[in-house]
Amino acid sequence: MDAEARETLAARYREVLKGVPPEVTLVAVSKTRSVDEIKALYDLGHRAFGENYPQELREKQPQLPADIEWHFIGHLQTNKVKYIAPFVHLVHGVDSLKLLDELDHRAAQNGRVQEVLLQVHIAREDTKHGFAADEVLALAAEAWSWKNLEVRGLMGMASNTPDRAQVQHEFEALRTLFDKLASDLGPRFDTLSMGMSADAQEALAAGSTLLRVGTAIFGERHYSAG
Ligand SMILES: *Cc1c(COP(=O)(O)O)cnc(C)c1O
Q: Looking at the whole model, is its pTM more than 0.85?
């Protein structure tokens, strides 16, 4: 990265930080970004990064400082858990019992307690993964029995729609579910991951405790080579 690119990144980052209240965690979504770009943001003092693809994360992690807190925010296939289980800080998109069992198994193998968020399906679109609200309530009632997992909260993605009221409504529904569970589950159930570049305002208004922001920090993603 040249000096100009670094300056652009620093300016975007400062701008994003202005909109993040001090009690809210900002995860910088670095999928598709180079190790150099991630290091540049790290050099500005940022430590929490989010990735969507297990192999990509597995390749980047050893090339970057060990004190980075890696968040896995994408849809995780059971057979890919092993790639990230040794080091991943928080797994956001947990959406099945099978995945919970595998995360528990791999956490035990690695001698770790794995922190996870349960993904709840809040969008109107059926393309987004996640448990239904009543499934999460049923799971919590069984006091989740995974010895090597700690459920720290919930994650959700709103519909991709220009209808701001709809987005707001979806986030508020997730917050309501989160509050209901939090009152039973105690102070360690404290993380509500909702809001990305396009809908951070609505998410914060609804009580998000963690934003996952890529584009607003790093600029548009380019999926093709180069
Ligand atoms: C890519 C992604 C983000 C970040 O999206 P931006 O629009 O770049 O801020 C957040 N959450 C998830 C689950 C993602 O896949």
A: yes
Decide whether any atom of ligand 1 lies within 6 Å of the 215 Cβ. Answer: yes
Q: What is the DSSP string of 102-113?
A: HHHHHHHHTT-P
| Domain boundaries defined on the chain | 3-218
Nearest CA to ligand 1 atom 11: 212
Q: Indicate if ligand 1 lies below 6 Å from the C-beta of 28.
A: no
Kindly give, in sequence order, each residue whose CB lies less than 8 Å from that of residue 87, ignoring residues fewer than 6 positions away: 61, 70
Q: Is the pLDDT of residue 226 over 50?
A: no
Q: What is the pLDDT of residues 48-91, one digit of tens each?
A: 999 999 999 999 999 999 999 999 999 999 999 999 999 999 99
> Which ligand 1 atom lies nearest to the CA of residue 52?
15
**What's the CATH architecture for 3-218?**
Alpha-Beta Barrel (3.20)
Tell me which residue of 57, 50, 139 sits closest to 95, measured CA to CA: 139
Tens of pLDDT, residue by residue over 128-174, are 789 999 999 998 888 778 999 999 999 999 999 999 999 999 999 99
Mutate to test the pocket of ligand 1, among 12, 26, 57, 73 (most ligand atoms within 8 A of CB): 73
